[in-house]
Specification:
Elements: H1 3-33, H2 38-41, H3 49-59, H4 73-101, H5 106-117, H6 137-141, H7 144-158, H8 164-199, H9 206-215, H10 221-231, H11 236-268, H12 273-302, H13 308-326, E1 330-332, E2 335-337, H14 341-355, H15 359-369, H16 371-383, H17 393-420, H18 425-434, H19 440-449, H20 455-483, H21 495-498
Antiparallel strand pairs: 1-2
Helix pairs in contact: 4-5, 4-16, 5-16, 5-20, 7-13, 7-14, 7-16, 8-9, 8-11, 8-17, 9-11, 9-19, 9-20, 10-11, 10-20, 11-12, 11-18, 12-13, 12-14, 13-14, 13-15, 17-18, 17-20, 18-20, 19-20
Length: 508
């Protein structure tokens, strides 16, 4: 036979072998990576027949079945978490550029980015298993440790506002305004919702009305602090605002504990003085004691390190330590004892800033270092906003009454208390508006109140108010600080040009 025939036959054979090898390579790569795709992982061999055929092809040489190791669920979860967190951070940053074009605060853009990545928008596309967005509210709650850590750093930085020099100058005013406006807000919301209860007892119970009034006292220190940091706000209103926000948490904790105890008494028919008075006081005292001890210990250890990076690392370690310790609960003589994360971390920062001579420079570096964590905190907060509550007309109605009464309480309470404390005119006019944001602390109180008979309604009302306040509150805070003349005009400087490297010698 002619030689060309054999050459053509050989070429055809090699071509066929090459095609088979290519198919094998493609199928092998799919098989090796199928564990990364949860949708493919759950398919059976009958629905995915090439996988079974490929297993036979791979094992027929030795006649035994080949066990192809699959990745563990832990590895899968970690991969998805890392992808999801990275995309959440990128989305928040990109959204902040759009927000700057329309003069919105960055914190609002982070919340909107989280809302778009959440289970009601991108999460509905079924891409959450690949790390693209959040498929459910339960998945968002799985990142709760990040929100706790972010709140710890935020509270630690707020502690910097309680320096002795500031307390001597504005301490009395901050204490007066912080307590008075919280009490007035609680009273107004209580009156509005109790009247609604007597008009429509089938819509809201008396216990829920009293509990919602106490929750109204809480504010959102994170959103307020982010607005202040972004626009470099400085002045009497800003300093008083940060101090009042911190005091709000302690006052709100006492009011909520007392109101929740009364609400339980109304439903059960008995009053427990331990839960009404003793437990909240113990929580505040224990939180302040733990925070003071942590701040003192941090200062003792900080003197052994001369490098800026090591001192900052030590501060990060102590914030993580205080966050972890504040999550513990125990009992003393049958009385439940716990800690307030915000109070513990705030007291740690307060004590440390007042006894460490180099704390101001360290605080500035720490605040810049934790910026990505803060962005993730707000993106996750936006993803947690439950839009299903908008379908319930009763929740919307109660929510509107709650928002109007709370806003009136914050504005009027701040005006009256700041006037009584002889604050400046700008503080009297604008402080109440800057206190409107509400988020994490209120949600924590609402979770506790869910044990009431209609606790689910309480939680939904708070969720609705958080949805409104978190999207509108930062913008109102920015406008108020601008009207008070405490926000500098934003420049167009670039960090790539303006920021210079730090001097050498940071290695001790």
């Amino acid at each position: 036979m002619p030689e060309g025939f054999f050459l053509r036959l050989k070429a055809k054979f090699l071509c066929q072998i090459g095609r088979q090898m290519l198919h094998f390579a493609v199928l092998s790569s799919i098989l090796k990576s199928y564990a990364f795709f949860p949708k493919l992982r759950g398919l059976s061999p009958c629905r995915f027949p090439f996988r079974a055929r490929l297993r036979y092809f791979l094992t027929r040489r030795n006649g035994s079945r080949l066990r192809i190791p699959a990745r563990s669920r832990t590895t899968d979860t970690m991969e998805q978490m890392l992808i999801c967190l990275s995309l959440a951070l990128i989305a928040g940053l990109l959204m902040s550029r759009l927000a700057k074009a329309v003069n919105l605060p960055a914190v609002t853009s982070y919340l909107i980015a989280g809302l778009l990545l959440g289970p009601f928008f991108l999460g509905r596309l079924g891409l959450s298993r690949l790390g693209f967005g959040f498929g459910s509210l339960a998945q968002v709650e799985g990142y709760g440790i990040i929100t706790q850590v972010a709140l710890g750093f935020i509270a630690f930085v707020i502690g910097n506002e309680f320096r002795l020099s500031a307390l001597k100058r504005m301490g009395r005013q901050a204490l007066t305004v912080g307590i008075a406006q919280a009490v007035i807000t609680t009273a107004l919301v209580d009156v509005a919702l109790i009247v609604l209860h007597f008009i429509r007892p089938d819509v809201i119970s008396l216990a829920s009305a009293i509990t919602l009034g106490a929750i109204a006292a809480a504010t959102a220190p994170a959103a307020t602090l982010m607005v202040v940091k972004q626009y470099k706000a400085s002045g009497p209103l800003t300093h008083l605002l940060l101090m009042v926000v911190a005091i709000d948490d302690a006052v709100g904790l006492v009011l909520f504990s007392a109101s929740y105890g009364v609400a339980n008494a109304l439903e059960q028919g008995r009053i427990d003085p331990v839960s009404v008075i003793l437990e909240p006081l113990l929580e505040i005292l224990l939180s302040l004691a733990l925070g003071a001890a942590a701040g003192y210990l941090l200062n003792l250890l900080e003197v052994y390190f001369h490098s800026r990076s090591k001192r900052m690392s030590l501060s990060v370690a102590f914030v993580l330590l205080t966050v972890g310790l504040s999550m513990t609960e125990f009992e003393i003589a049958g009385t439940r004892c716990g800690f307030s994360l915000l109070l513990v971390c705030m007291m740690t920062g307060t004590v440390f800033c007042n006894i460490c001579p180099t704390s101001e420079e360290l605080m500035d570096r720490l605040d810049r270092w934790v910026s990505p964590i803060n962005i993730l905190f707000f993106v996750l907060s936006g993803a947690e906003l439950d839009l299903t509550i908008l379908a319930n007309p009763f929740v919307l109605f109660i929510g509107v009454v709650y928002i109007i009464a709370r806003s009136a309480g914050k504005i009027s309470g701040s005006f009256l208390s700041s006037r009584a404390a002889r604050c400046s005119g700008d503080i009297q006019k604008y402080l109440g508006i800057t206190l409107l944001p509400q988020a994490g602390v209120a949600l924590g109180m609402a979770a506790t109140a869910s044990q009431l008979s209609d606790g689910h309604m309480v939680r939904n009302v708070v969720l609705f108010s958080v949805l409104v306040y978190e999207l509108v509150g930062p913008t109102l805070a920015k406008l108020s600080l601008t009207a008070a003349g405490e926000i500098r005009p934003e420049g167009r400087t670039s960090a790539r040009v303006e920021n210079k490297p730090e001097p050498a010698g940071d290695v001790g």
